[in-house]
Amino acid sequence: MVQSMQKKTSPVGETFESLIEAVGHELAGVLMMRFGGRRMRIPRSCESEVAQELCAVIGIDGFQKLIKAFAGQEIYIKKNFDQKKAARNRAICDRADFLTRDVARGGEGLSFRRATLKLVDEFGLSDRQIETIVNRGG
Question: 24 pLDDT band (50/70/90 cuts)?
């Protein structure tokens, strides 16, 4: 009989909630900023290179909490995309405001369309995405 080699994984949200329970919201956020978007095997002790890196990022107390909850397990630390996306969208709106503001008021005086095309190049998004972000105000 052949057994499946597929690993059982929990949904990302569930893992993140468990991470928050284990180390607290602040340290979970720090882990997301540093290790977000990757799977990580949590060491069983503080001797490995990964353990040293985790200790440097969340401190020994945080690392001990992490070991207590996840030692030997592979967890997925989600990417901190929502905060980065919100910051990017704010930057797009601020830049659009500057580009479309009259020259007399310190802007570049571009039309909305020209400003949008400039933002497409600057941020690497489509013109529709830029327009949606600017029209929503972030």
Answer: very high
CA distances from 124 to 87, 88, 116, 117, 119 (A): 15, 11, 11, 10, 8
Q: Which of 32-41, 69-78, 85-94, 113-122 holds the top average pLDDT? A: 113-122
The secondary structure of residue 105, as a DSSP letter, is G
Q: What is the pTM of this model?
A: 0.55
- Measured between its terminal Cα atoms, the distance across the chain in Å is 55
Burial of 116 (0-12, 13-18, 19+ CB in 10 A): buried
Q: Which stretch of DSSP H or E encloses residue 128?
A: helix 127-136
